[in-house]
Amino acid sequence: MKLSYKHKIFFTFLIIFALYSFVLVFFQQKEEKKFKTEALENSLANYTQIIHNYVQQEHLLKNNLEISKVNHLADLLPKDIRITLIARDGKVLYDNDVQNIQKLENHLNRPEIKQTLYLRDRGINIRKSVSTQHEYMYYAQLFDNYFVRVALPYNIQTQKFFKTDNAFIYLTIIIFILVLILLNAVANRFNKSIVQLKLLASQVKEGKHLSAQVTFQDDDLGEVGEELQEIFQQKLESEKQLKQEQEKIIFHFQHVEEGVGIFNSDNSVIYYNSQLIQYINLLTDQPSLELTEIFKQDFFRPVTEFVSKTDENQNHTSVTIYKEDKVWLIEAIKFKDNSFEIQIKDITKAERTRLIKQEMSNNITHELRTPVTSIRAYLETLNEQTLPLDKQQLFINKAYQQSIRLSDLVEDIGLISKLEEAKEQFKKEPVSIYQLIQEVRINLSDRLLANKIHLNLLVDKALTLQGNYTLLFSVFQNLIENSINYGGENIEIIIDNYKEDESYLYFSYSDTGKGLDEKYFNRLFERFYRAQEGRTRNNGGTGLGLSIVKNAIQLHGGEIFIKKNIPSGLTFLFTLKKT
Q1: Which of 82, 127, 211, 261 is the most exposed place for a label (fewest CB within 10 A)?
Q2: At 154, which helix (H) or strand (E)?
């Protein structure tokens, strides 16, 4: 059964106050009993001191015959008090309740005497007397060489003295009842406000109009309820106005992936995503968390002018911005109520791709034009002129060489296009690196021999890699062809897998050829890039070899770097991932 708020308050405070009352009564009775015990002990201690002073003054211990004078003192002390004088060895010297003290046994084993000897200089105990068979409350104290013990009969009167006063308990119970009545009244008052708040919350949750029956008590909680009621009323009224804005936001944000913000006609922000403020901070010189800062920027002026116009026929505009190495597209869409949406897109990748494709198309056109033009010129000459046989053969051979170059160029263009756009077509399989390089050596043996180039292979014969055979073949073939084309004659090529770890194979490819100035290193892997104009055409290359090498290595999860040899030549350092 679920308790109401009233019952929760009531029972919580009931338990707390009950525990408090119990603890208070418990400690009060304990302290009262302790106080009465200490008072009685003090009284008995005073009696023992009086008796000791009397014994010392009258020198009673020196003359045992006069020790009976203690009876005179006993008459002056409270009625029924029992006085006992005990020697240090436990022998009873005097007892006003026993006529023949010679019959009394040694008292060293009495509890109150033991306490006096071993625990402190005084002892107290309640027990039945062995000699009189009456129950006493004993109190003993040690003075020099004897004990003074006094005892009071432990009867109903003595027990009543130790009994605590119940008046405090009755007073606590009365206060407890009054507090319960007060708690009930307070809980009732709070419960009325809580019930009204629950009714208000229920109506708001169900989307109902607020009922006039919801009234609150004249207290702090009631004031909070009235303020909430007013806020909820305003919320219901503003929901109608927000619906149109929400529909715009939902519609546009379902179709936009870049930085987007929606603004009122006065440029105040309605909504924005996290990408928008990030892009704005990249575009502006001074980072800011205020989106309105973009309207103050010069590059944003075309958009600002657009959104400030009232031309109903124009509801869209766009601006392209080049910022450092980034390209941004800013689009603005204006709505009928003059609110507007801003989209900022990072089109750097798309723009670079476009430029690269444009550059590649231009390069391809340029590279294809040379062999095609040469072939056409040779064929036109043969077709239009009558030449000697040796001259005809020369022109046919040159046209054939240009056709080979044209074929190589088309093949390389196709390969590099696959590397960039259809990587999934290259299936991987176990490849013996040593055997692959040997096949490249055989394929280029005539050219190596013609240029007097020695290939020194320092690769483990058992070395195997999970990779694509065609691409790995093109890596080593293009590197060797690069040395053949540009290294010169009488040089040495060294291929070494100098290191291996759990993930990668590490290779070095070096030659002792002419080398190249380090200023060209950064662009050496670009497509159709020539460190020296005409260098590629003169030597028969397509200008795509090293670009293919880099892309093939990256497809195998590796990287390639270049450095200059001393005294001459180049070294390519590259890695290939094992799996």
Answers
A1: 211
A2: none
> Nearest-CA neighbor of 138 among 94, 83, 92, 93?
83
What confidence score (pLDDT) does residue 233 get?
67
> In the 3-class helix/strand/coil scheme, how is 346-404 assigned residue by residue?
ECHHHHHHHHHHHHHHHHHHHHHHHHHHHHHHHHHHHHHCCCCHHHHHHHHHHHHHHHH
Which stretches of the chain score pLDDT less than 50? 156, 533-538
CA distance 189 to 187: 5
Distance CA 89, CA 87 (A): 5
CA proximity to 200, closest of 190, 210, 192? 210
Q: What is the pTM of this model?
A: 0.42
Task: Specify the 3-state DSSP secondary structure of 149.
Answer: strand
pLDDT in tens, 159-183: 555 555 566 667 777 877 787 777 7
Local structure of 223: helix, strand or coil: helix
Which tokens belong to 531?
A: 């460190």
Residue-wise pLDDT tens digits, 198-250? 666 666 666 665 555 556 666 666 666 666 666 776 776 777 777 777 777 66
Burial string for 525-547 (b: 16+ CB within 10 Å, else e) reads bbbbbeeeeeebeeeebbbbbbb
CA distance 325 to 351: 11
